[in-house]
Structures are given as C-alpha cells and as structure tokens.
Design brief:
Helix content: over 70%
Shape: globular
Distance between the termini: 44 Å
Number of strands: 0
Order of helices and strands: HHHHHHHH
Number of domains: 1
Strand content: under 5%
Amino acid sequence: MTADTEPKLNWWNRLANPGQFVAWTTPLLWPLTILTAVLFVLGLWFAFFNSPADYQMGDTVRIMYVHVPNAWLSQFVYATMSVSALGTLVWRHPMADVSMKAAAPLGALFTALALFTGALWGRPTWGTFWEWDGRMTSTLVLLLIYLGLVALWRAFDDQLRAARIIAVFTLVGAINIPIIKFSVDWWSTLHQPASVFRPDGPRMPGSILVPLFVMFFAFTFLFLTLHLKAMHTEVKRRRVMTLKRRLAQGGSA
C-alpha cells in the first residue's frame, strides 16, 4: 500500500463505522435544515407571487412547481438506493444498507406526491385525473416497488441478511427508471417531452424556469436532510437492538 492510497482507505474505513458516520454528519443537519427552509420560502414566493400564469393552463401551472420536483426525486431517490445496493453487494460497506433502507420510505413518499399532484394537474389540463399512459403507469409501478421494498425490510429480523436480498431486488427494480424517463419518447402519451434539459435549451421563460429550479433544489435538499436524519435513526435503532440481544443472551446464560 502506497502513502497516496493509505489516507483514502483510512477515510473510507472511518466512514464505514456507524459511530464515526453519525459524529461526522450530525453537524450538517442544522445547516441543511436552514438551507431547505430558505429555499422553500424563496421557491413558494416565486411560484405564487412572482411568476406568471400560463397562457393555456392559467394558474393551474403552479402545481408544476411541486409536481416536477417530486417526479424528479421519485427517480433520484431510487438511483441513490441502487448505488447503495451496489455498495452492499460489491463493497460490503456497512452504511450502504443503512442508506438503502432509510431512502425507501422517502422515495415512496415523493412518488406518491408526484402521482397525486400529477392527477390534480391533469384534471384541468387533460380533462382526466388518470390515464394509463406509459409515464403514469411506470411511475405507479415505481411506487409499488418502493412499498414492496419497505415491506421486505420489515419482514426480516436479521437486517444484515435482509440487506443483501433487498439489494438484489433493488437493482432489478432499477430497470423501471429508464422506462419512466424515456416513456414519452417510446409510446404515445399525454406527457410532453422534456422541456428543461434539451439540446437546444429550455422551452420555458425565465420567469417560470427560475422558481422551478428553486423548488427543485428545495425538495432535493429536503430529501438530503430527511435521508441523513433517517440514517442516524437507523444506526441508533440497530444499536438498541444489539444491546437488547446481548442482554437477552446474558440473561439466558
């Protein structure tokens, strides 16, 4: 081992220690919480008071500022879980399965919010709350995958054994993410193609694009804050369970 690689390995090994992870990341919680709150205040102010109504959809376009970030997060959270699943299966990183478990309920929440706000937006825009098109259906499948993974975590008492099994299911379920992404290109759908990240630039005026990006970052930092807090809670829960097992073994002896 060279002198160049040793510090990196030491840092990686320390991060793998749950106690070290909690100690290092706890000071980040308050700054993340404050930043998230500031972004939400700015985003909501822009969305409701400093952005124009759409010439076709009118004020219902404001639902977009909640719907689009939640739809983005529904996929981003699953991508985070997939990376964590690789960390569990390939590198056996102790915090990877903690990250995977903590993210699953949050992903289910953001996906449910995306579906709910999408239905609210769809009724005045398309004349229907629901249509079995490619993107809606694949997003509903994603919600069911999230709920299934949450149920699997709760079905196992041995969380280390559960992590390896659930990691495999998580990676299999990742097939649905590109289906959601490209469904508007593959099939006939009510959803329009990408309007922001396009080779020729966004198809939105700045007065709509700015609040959309602010809300995008607000929801993203909300996930990061909640995910970090959930990981801390899971680490502490596992410590309590370990202590209970040791006490039970000592009592039976």
